[in-house]
Each structure stands twice: as C-alpha cells, then as structure tokens.
Amino acid sequence: MNWKFWQKTKEAKKPKSKTKEWVDALVFAVVAATLIRWAFMEAFVIPTPSMESSLLVGDYLFVSKINYGARTPKTPLQLPLSHQKVWGTEIPSYSTLIQLPQFRLPGFQKIKNNDVVVFNYPEETQYPTDLKTNYIKRCIGIAGDSIQIKNLQVFINGKPVGDPPKVQYSYYLQTDMPLNERFFRKYTLYQPREVNGGYLIHTQPAIAKELTTYEYVKDVRLLNEPDSIYEQRIYPQSHYFRWNRDNFGVLYIPKEGDKLKVSTEMLATYGKYIERYEGNGNVKIENGQLWIDGKEILEYTFNQNYYFMMGDNRHNSEDSRYWGFVPEDHVVGKALLVWMSMDSEEPNPLKKIRWSRIFNIIR
C-alpha cells in the first residue's frame, strides 16, 4: 500500500459535524428500536380493566414476539414506532398502497391454555391486520379445543379448569351507609358504581367474602346470569345458540386442517371467519350454502388456527364470548412482565407508582 496516498486520503476526509453525528445516531436508534419492536420485544400499557386484578390499568408490559414467532410486516409503509396515528394527532401513520402477504417466523413455543396474549382486535375493519387495535386477554381455549361455561365454571374438552388466581366477577354491595374512596382503594375496588342504594363492584371472590364481615355491609351478592337468560350480544348472535356470559357453549375452536361439513348451523358459527380471515377469494353465503369463487363447498377446510380469549375480570371484559375467535395471524405476542405501573387515580403524586408491581412476572 502507498503510505503517503493513504495518509493524504485520511487527511482530506472531513470530520462529521455535530449535527451529522446526532442525525446518524438518531437514525441508528430508530432503526434498532424498530427492529427490536418488530422481531423481539414491544412495550404496551394496559388501558382498560378487563384483566383486573391480574393486570391493572396503568401497568406497562413487555410483550415477547419471539415466543410465538414474530410476524412479517403486512403494511410496510408506516411511520417507525407508531401505530395507526401520528403521535398526538388524528393523522394516519401508514399507507395501504403496499400490502404484503404475512408470515410468522419460527417461535420456540406454541400458544398454550392460560397464556396471557396480546393480539389485534379481529372485529376492526378500518385497519390492516397488523395495525388493528391491540387487546390483551387470557387464552382460555386453543385450536382444537371445545369450550363450555356452566354457571361461571369453564370447561375445556368436557373437563373443568381452574380460574386464574385473581379472577374477578361483578357483585352488588349493599350497605347501611355511604362508603368513601379510602374504603374502595383499600380493597382495590376500581370505579364502583352507585346502584339502588348500594354499589356495583368488580372484585375477587375472596375479597367479596371478606367484605361481608363489616357490620355496615348488609349484602354482597354475586351478579351471575342463570342459564335461562339469553343474551343477544353473545357470539355467535344466532337463534341456534341461546347463551349468556356465564352459561356458554359447547363451542368448538377450529384448527388448521380441520374439515367441517357445511350446514346452516356451521355457517352461523364460522361463516364470518371463512369470509374475512381465511384468505379466500369470492365468498358467498346464502340459504345455508357456501360458495367460494363460484364453486359450492360442501366441506370446508380451515387454513389457520383460532383461539378463544377471555379477560380475568369476567363480568367486565369484551372478549371472545361477545365477538368470537382470534385468528392466529392476529396474534402479536406473549405478555411476559410488568416493568412499570402507574395509578392515574391516585391523588398523591408520591404514591402514583405502584412499586410492588414492578418486574412482576405475568402468569
């Protein structure tokens, strides 16, 4: 090598300006964060009480993408580190000019019963799959399971399964006197509602039992729905299935490769999934018949797995009992741990951080 030539070249090369160094560092950080967020781990915050008391509003979570395998992007034209909207605005942060086929990279585990899962809400139609609103629930039933609920008790494949450790239900709390905020916070009774001289609360059975020990508490009554009540909002919203939130099923959860004979009842149960989530072409359902690309289908084979999700706050959760299954291509990842927790309703700023919840493993 010509030493003098190399030395002159080195001397001629101008050093980067401070601005250029900052821009390069920022670009690198954004690219690295985007790759980590897509392939390995993403941070989420709990916005609703559907998983209380297991997860609280204001819990910040790490969600693993590698457990079940990361999904390849379906909508590549989007602002990095955004979801649906540009931060703080109503401006869309993405473009649908390019929509790619979606695949899942290999993971090191399958979704199991009772996993806490983050997924894209299937019922949203205004967004591409990977930009639908993120929900978090517990996977009660996996593909191939049959689920039933009888008087609150969940059965999988005919066998009763245990409730999550901190499962909650709705109760009517009747008292002789008004209760103050301090009482409700002591028992983590979030957003109690005054009803007919008492309070509607959501709590764990053990806490409900403890509340009956107070002299001024007249009654703590579980608000479960008897089998005779038919709730129209319950999936599949058909006269074939007269179910409610506490008495539900038996309902089979389809898995990839399943072949089901087409009938009026089968289409009432699974028709919308065949239409919307299976990647079929021209689907027509009419008079108990299924047509795909102009050909009548007498036996349908499912193209992917489905899952049944429920919130641990069983009477305050919009979940699979109301809108049905989660397709596998809507699964985002597995919730691993709480890395921060903030109580927005705590008036004392020194107590807003829930220190006892930091670094809690999610079970």
**CATH architecture call of the largest domain:** Ribbon
User: Regarding CATH, which class of the largest domain?
Assistant: Mainly Beta
Quantity of strands, as a count: 21
* Strand-pairing-aware structural class: alpha+beta
Specify the CATH homologous superfamily of the largest domain: Umud Fragment, subunit A
Number of helices: 6
Q: Residue share in helices?
A: 10-25%
Largest sheet: 8 strands, antiparallel
Report the order of strands and helices: HHEEEEEEEEHEEHEEEHEEEEEHEEE
Shape: flat
Radius of gyration: 25 Å
Percent in strands: 25-35%
Report mean pLDDT, rounded to a whole number: 92
CATH topology group of the largest domain: Umud Fragment, subunit A
Number of domains: 3
- Tell me the span between the first and last alpha carbons: 62 Å
Say what oligomer this is.
Answer: single chain
Low-pLDDT windows of residues: none
